Amino acid sequence: MMKFKKQIILFLCFCSFAVKSQNTYKRWPEIIRKNEVVWFGSDEAKRIAENVLLYQRDIGGWPKNIQMQEELTEKQKKDLIALKKTAVETTTDNGATCQEMLFMSKMYAQIKDERYKESFLKGLNYLLEAQYPNGGWPQFYPLKKGYYTHITYNDDSMVNIMNVIKAVADETDYYSIKPSKEIVDKCKKSFDKGIDCVLKTQYKQNGVLTAWCAQHDETTLAPANARAFELASLSGSESAKIVLLLMSIDKPSREIVTAVKSAVEWFEKTKITNLEEKRVLNDAGKIIDKKMIPVVNGGPIWARFMDLETNEPFFCDRDGIKKKSIDQIGSERRNGYSWYSDAPKEVLKRFPDWAVKNGTKVGAAEKKNVNYITVAQDGSGDYTKIQDAVYATPAFPYEKVTIYVKNGIYNEKVRIPEWNNNVILKGESKENTIITFDDNFSKIALGRNSTFYTSTLLVEGDDFTASNLTIKNASGERGQAIALSVIGNRAKIINCNLLGNQDTLYLSGKEAKQYFKDCYIEGTTDFIFGGATALFENCIIHSIKSSYITAASTPAGTAFGFVFKNCKLTANPDAKDVYLGRPWRIYAKTVFINCEMGNQIKPEGWENWSKPEAEKNSFYAEYNCTGEGFQPSKRVKWSHQLSKKEAGQYSINNILKDKIANWYLN
């Protein structure tokens, strides 16, 4: 009796396993994605895997819309073997290739058949080979004539590819097959190129970033037509999957953040809440009609096709003529195509948490304690003007606030007030992010102190950093005209161009410490002047004409004034008589250490500005400089050549020492 009971239990267990391992889905994509893991070790799965292997071309890709689970005749098998070398109809459209790779991965996880692994890797290589140099993918590869060559977002083709490549590049466990490090590295480069293409194809509508089109020209990246009823347009459906892909990237760049934010704003702008799709089905469950019914507070839904300039939904028959509503096209296209989508709902659902994590806005409401603000003239940032971004910066923030300025020429005066401390003003590139204005002494005309009102950028707030910028006063040789005025304490200017003529750079502030590194500073007369303690490291100091480089007004008793270390002093050809400095105030301090001086520097080096008392009270010195302009024996007698021990006192810590330790390193 006990033996009989055991047999029954074993039989029931077998039946249970058999039930679990049966395929209960009819369509090929469902079989891949919905079957339980155990099914992929079943005999049925192995039979289907043989079909999948047969359908894969030697190039690595598969054709689309094939029900791989269907039984094949011997003739069909023979025909498929003959097709393997041809690469006929290999594609990523409608999920092809990507879904077969997933199937092979699931098979290999259950059955270590090396053919499954090889099949997956061939598919991956196919995807990598198919990518355009600009990062996009065509719908068919090898290339098939017609619209198939366009970069294809339609039906999520490119997003599907990039999700595969991202999983491999990130070395996740999503796929059971682990490629070599070489292939992983290829995937990383491929994914980055793909993201670059995604960002470049985001459509600008009147200068404002919006969404994406189903197809983009593979050369120009412009929106492109596909089939007659698929005209170039903004796509609600495909754009959603693109944004979700961008949101999946860990530590996204500011360009990605801007792209996502801009797309979300477009989704909000174009959502439809007053219509609902009603489908009429026959007895067999087939759609025989679609109608859009007016509703209140419905959806939201989005149109599949929206006009590139107006965002107005449109619909087409096979004649390619735009219609304004779905009921204006014939039943064949009306019922046989998806004209609306709710896919962007998922984007809007995830966006608030993503936005907080990545320091951007949620909808139109600015989150508190904003610590990252983007300025872009094309409307893709938070603001189009730098000063507007400054106005939006919190007063006395606990953390650094970055204002990221995208490339462009910003013709504006900018002021960073005292209450806007901890500001980082960061340009996209030193050469192409330019802040410029043309105020000068005569133009301001506010009396004898007009000079101090002329600055293009005025920094009053402490703990300020500027990098990758050109700051210019464009007034030309029209008298005193400041490009950058820094009054705040603990200011850092890194990798910037400071351009002007007379009085280019003004440095002040009571006991202020300021640090300039890897900058290019040019001007004519006294183009670096003021009373702050400032260290210049690895800078190019360029004289446009014969005159004076510095005019320090160092307060009495201050340990250091202007210190130039490892700088290069250059000049225009006609600037032949340049002084290192003269004292704006009699306690001026200026020192050059390990600097290269061109022959424009006058042998005497320094001038007293008709102030004999400055010769006793100022401190002008040099140490270990080089170049034709370094003539220590011919310098004015009241200047100094430092000893090695004395020069050793001019360390960055000694010069810039402050109550906040090592602030210049943060």
List the helices and strands and how they pair.
Blueprint: H1 2-21, H2 28-34, H3 43-55, H4 74-83, H5 98-110, H6 114-130, E1 151-152, H7 157-169, H8 181-201, E2 204-205, E3 208-209, E4 215-216, H9 236-247, H10 254-270, E5 275-281, E6 287-294, E7 302-303, E8 315-316, E9 322-323, H11 331-335, E10 340-341, H12 344-357, E11 372-375, H13 386-391, E12 401-405, E13 408-411, E14 414-416, E15 423-427, E16 433-437, H14 441-444, E17 457-459, E18 465-467, E19 470-473, E20 484-486, E21 491-494, E22 497-499, E23 505-507, E24 513-517, E25 520-523, E26 528-530, E27 533-537, E28 540-543, E29 548-552, E30 562-565, E31 568-571, E32 579-581, E33 589-593, E34 596-597, H15 614-617, E35 619-623, E36 640-641, H16 644-647, H17 652-656
Parallel strand pairs: 11-12, 12-15, 13-16, 14-17, 15-18, 16-19, 17-20, 18-21, 19-22, 20-23, 21-24, 22-25, 23-26, 24-27, 25-28, 26-29, 27-30, 28-31, 29-32, 30-33, 31-34, 33-35, 35-36
Antiparallel strand pairs: 1-4, 2-3, 5-6, 7-10, 8-9
Helix pairs in contact: 3-5, 5-6, 7-8, 9-10, 9-12, 10-12
InterPro entries: Pectate_lyase, Pectin_lyas_fold, Pectin_lyase_fold/virulence, Pectinesterase_Asp_AS, Pectinesterase_cat, Pectinesterase_Tyr_AS
Keywords: Aspartyl esterase, Hydrolase, Lyase, Signal
GO molecular function: pectate lyase activity
